[in-house]
Amino acid sequence: MDKRVFCKRFAIWTAVIVAVVIATLGLLFGKVVEATLAEEIGKWVLMGIFIVGIFEVFAYVLAPFFYHMIYDKKK
Fold first, then answer.
1. pTM assigned to the model
2. DSSP secondary structure, 1-54, as one string
3. For residues 33-57, average pLDDT
């Protein structure tokens, strides 16, 4: 597998997993604090985008490391 393809897949799967975890936590443990439901949903969406962005930075830094750990093992 090419390093670029691996890094893209790593970033996409990181975003998907983090978004699912945030949505699950929001549905199970979220409390309505805002005045309307639309404001509450907007808050969770913006918070989710922000947290996914943070994790994507970590994925961008760590993806080449994991690629070398998996595919470029020393002989």
1. 0.80
2. --HHHHHHHHHHHHHHHHHHHHHHHHHHH----SSSHHHHHHHHHHHHHHHHHH
3. 90
